[in-house]
Write a structure and sequence with these properties.
The protein is of the alpha+beta class and about 190 residues long. It has three helices and four strands. It folds into two domains: about 10-100; about 105-185, General secretion pathway protein M, EpsM (Gyrase A, domain 2). It has helices at about 10-100, 105-110, 140-150, and strands at about 115-125, 130-135, 155-160, 170-180.
Length: about 190
């Protein structure tokens, strides 16, 4: 067990206690001052950063009309190029839609021809087709005539001269027929 003796007079005790309180108060004041400086430095740095960003945005805004005008000119150039290209494509599409493919004549004739008929010459003048060839016999030629006349959706005005029908075998023939323009368009 320890025994403590208090030999200080009361005035000195009060003086020591006052010194301790004043030190504690000074320490608290110093701490508050440091915190104020810290928060103030944070506010100043935030202000400086925002001010710098504002100045850079104003600088961009000042140079922006020139850049946006260049962009608008470039964009209008692209738009004009696209319009010209689209006009050319429309012209090509219009031409292609009205284009006639006379190769369709072969597709029409192929199922109509028999093995006894050989085509030597095929000529077209506008929508009129002239055929010249050889038929093995008269029946093959008459069958071709009948098939052409029955193909009314594409073939009209079939004309076979009667002189072609005088021979029985190896008949040299010529015939003309008209073909409808709708049948010459590629589907």
């Amino acid at each position: 067990m320890k025994i403590l003796l208090n030999l200080l007079p009361e005035e000195k005790k009060d003086a020591i206690q006052n010194r301790l309180r004043s030190r504690f108060l000074l320490w608290q004041l110093f701490l508050v001052f440091v915190l104020e400086v810290f928060y103030l430095s944070m506010l100043v740095s935030t202000y400086l950063v925002l001010d710098y960003q504002l100045k850079s945005l104003k600088g961009l805004e000042a140079s922006s009309p020139l850049a946006s005008q260049e962009d608008e000119e470039r964009l209008s150039g692209y738009e004009q190029t696209f319009e010209e290209t689209n006009a050319l494509v429309e012209d090509v599409a219009r031409i292609d839609a009205s284009h006639l493919y006379f190769s369709q004549v072969f597709k029409i004739l192929d199922p109509l021809l028999t093995s006894g008929i050989t085509i030597n010459e095929l000529a077209t003048v506008e929508y009129r087709v002239s055929l010249a060839g050889v038929a093995k016999d008269r029946d093959d030629l008459l069958m071709l005539d009948e098939r052409l006349k029955s193909a009314k959706e594409c073939v009209t005005d079939v004309n076979i001269p009667i002189s072609n029908l005088f021979s029985q075998k190896d008949i040299d023939f010529q015939m003309d027929f008209s073909i409808l323009p709708e049948c010459l368009k590629k589907l």
